[in-house]
Write a structure and sequence with these properties.
With 424 residues, the chain is of the alpha+beta class. It has one domain: Outer membrane efflux proteins (OEP). Helices cover 67% and strands 11% of the residues.
Length: 424
């Protein structure tokens, strides 16, 4: 069974754009949110039902002995056809409007879930790519570390090196091998989680295709980003829609005292034998059409209680909207602060990397002149590799903070689709 599962696993190589498109299309949470939105749309049909004409046909055929009494309010007939629909019913009209507003709000909820999943997929994509860079760097370091171990071993044999230096070289080699093993486990985990987020089985893996993520733009200012975030936030817009729906619910319950007008009509085909002995005039075809008007006199306390409950719910949503409004502003500001910190750390990492590369070049020249041993050069290359890892990490953190800002503004998907460039 395990072998069959492994054989069925697939590897999907995707760019960042493709990753976000697949996530928006087939992520399970997105699919559930869209189903909720569809259910809300179907609720509009349910709420509109009283205003749609309904026609019922049947037969009231019955054996009559004596006076033709009515059965369930219907006189004996060969064929019966009835129809009814609401013409004026303010409570149901408000309920229909509330259902439409709820359906509109559920669309914002589905879009919010798409934004969340897109950010999650982008973050996992970045993490998987980051781990791969670290893997490649450490893999490239291993031959140099092995040279250092061989050189130290030869030096110990010749008596020119202390055994401690050989032990230190072997420890460095073991550290790199352990890091490499750990990184490959992390890489497998991120690729598995990326597959799960994209709606693939957990046995599949998603390999991120190298992309120039440094081209990801950011809004020009913190103030503009905050304004865009408040305008585009799907959760906030869904709450606004929910407030409108609750206001319509309150109006619906308050309108319970208004009169209600329904269209009523019916047709009946009578059999002569049921009526000829009791009525002077008989006709086969009979129909009625008119309006049923109801004036509520005593409606009880339920409508008032339901109106107060809806009003309370509306007040709660407004408080939550204020909390969300403040959180959006705070998160946007924090994202910008994190971005600025990440930019400074990246600049520092680049300076350290440039210094490490220059040291390697200097040592190579000195080694060619016989002034420093090759082991010293390899140690410098090892340090250069560590600086490359630090630089990859700092660059990834810059991109990650940019993703966070774009997520706040609700423009992550649109921005990535419009600016992503794949490196050759």
């Amino acid at each position: 069974m395990i072998f069959a599962s492994a054989a069925a696993a697939e590897v999907h190589s995707l760019t960042l754009v493709e990753t976000l498109q697949v996530a928006a299309r087939q992520n399970p949470e997105v699919a559930l949110a869209r189903l909720d939105a569809q259910r809300a749309e179907q609720g509009v049909k349910v709420a509109a039902d009283p205003f749609r004409p309904k026609v019922y046909a049947g037969s009231g055929l019955a054996y009559t002995y004596g006076y033709p009494n009515s059965i369930d309010g219907n006189a004996p007939s060969l064929i019966q056809v009835k129809t009814d629909m609401a013409l004026f019913d303010r409570p149901k009209s408000y309920q229909l409007a509330a259902a439409r507003e709820t359906a509109r709000g559920s669309q914002f909820g589905a879009q919010a879930k798409v934004d969340d999943v897109a950010y999650q997929a982008a973050d996992l994509f970045l993490s998987a790519l980051q781990v791969r860079h670290q893997d490649e760097t450490i893999t490239a370091q291993l031959p140099g570390l092995q040279k250092v171990v061989d050189a130290k071993s030869a030096g110990v044999s010749e008596g020119s090196e202390l055994p401690l230096e050989l032990k230190r070289a072997r420890v460095n080699m073991a550290i790199s091998e352990t890091r490499l093993s750990s990184l490959r486990l992390d890489q497998d985990y991120y690729e598995m989680m990326l597959a799960v987020v994209l709606g693939y089985p957990a046995t599949d893996r998603v390999k991120p295709v190298e992309s120039d993520l440094s081209l990801t733009p950011t809004p020009p200012s913190e103030e503009e980003a905050a304004e865009i975030a408040l305008r585009n936030n799907r959760q906030l817009r869904q709450m606004q829609s929910n407030v409108l729906a609750k206001e319509l619910d309150v109006r619906s319950f308050k309108a319970a005292r208004l009169p209600q007008v329904d269209l009523v009509a019916q047709y009946a085909l009578f059999a002569k034998y049921n009526y000829v002995n009791y009525f002077q005039k008989f006709q086969h075809n009979n129909f009625q059409i008119g309006a049923s008007i109801v004036f509520p006199l005593l409606v009880g306390s339920a409508s008032e209680g339901l109106a107060l409950q809806s009003y309370t719910d509306m007040q709660k949503i407004r408080i939550q909207m204020d909390q969300l409004h403040n959180r959006i502003l705070a998160d946007t500001r924090r994202s910008y602060e994190q971005w600025q910190k990440a930019e400074k750390m990246r600049d520092l990492s680049r300076m350290q990397l440039d210094l490490a590369r220059e040291e390697v070049n200097v040592l190579l020249v000195q080694n060619g002149e016989g002034r420093v041993p090759m082991a010293r050069v390899e140690q410098a290359r090892l340090e250069e590799g560590d600086r490359w890892i630090d630089f990859y990490d700092s660059e990834a953190q810059v991109v990650r903070t940019k993703f966070a800002i774009l997520r706040q503004t609700g423009t992550l998907l649109a921005t990535i689709r419009g600016t992503q460039v794949i490196t050759p």
